[in-house]
Recover the amino acids of this structure.
């Protein structure tokens, strides 16, 4: 299965980043309003393997990073299922089950996020995605590049949010 990885160092403690990731349903719309309208828990025990959430993407109105890269068109969404979550290891895996990249022609899109401590006040965030399908090679490459750009931008925004709320 093809894969891609993104990695970014954040000037925030790993425990703070992990806690924010566990609360991302409420945080993401705050820090990325130009991209995400809402995140809604649909089924299962929230934050536990098997739980499903719905992420609704914002229409492209403002001139922003996300609108320039055309991450989402109006009305788009993704349903994600949490596959695994390990608090002690700061690792979680989710799989898109509807919309998102599946609506773009991929047959599988599974992402694992790892938060790796670097001392007491920094961490490295590793995001790896395994995917199958896609249409043309050029479309697959474009989707992967958009995903990487969006992931890195989102985590820099998360870092700034945590610093500004004294959670970092």
């Amino acid at each position: 299965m093809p894969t891609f990885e993104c990695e970014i160092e954040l000037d925030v403690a790993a425990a703070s980043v992990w806690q924010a990731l566990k609360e991302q349903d409420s945080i993401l719309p705050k820090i990325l309003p130009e991209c995400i309208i809402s995140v809604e828990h649909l089924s299962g025990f929230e934050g536990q393997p098997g739980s499903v959430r719905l992420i609704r993407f914002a229409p492209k109105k403002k001139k922003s990073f996300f609108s320039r890269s055309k991450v989402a068109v109006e009305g788009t969404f993704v349903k994600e299922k949490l596959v695994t979550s390990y608090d002690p290891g700061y690792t979680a895996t989710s799989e898109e089950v509807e919309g998102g990249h599946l609506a773009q022609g991929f047959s599988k899109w599974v992402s694992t996020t790892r938060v790796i401590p670097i001392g007491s006040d920094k961490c490295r965030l590793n995001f790896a995605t395994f995917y199958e399908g896609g249409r043309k090679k050029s479309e697959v490459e474009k989707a992967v590049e958009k995903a990487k750009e969006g992931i890195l931008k989102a985590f820099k925004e998360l870092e700034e949010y945590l610093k500004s709320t004294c959670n970092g």
In short: Residues 89 and 154 are 21 Å apart (CA to CA). The beta strands are 3-10, 36-43, 52-57, 77-86, 91-99, 106-118, 122-133. Residues 137-164 form the longest helix (28 residues). The chain is about 30% helix and 40% strand.
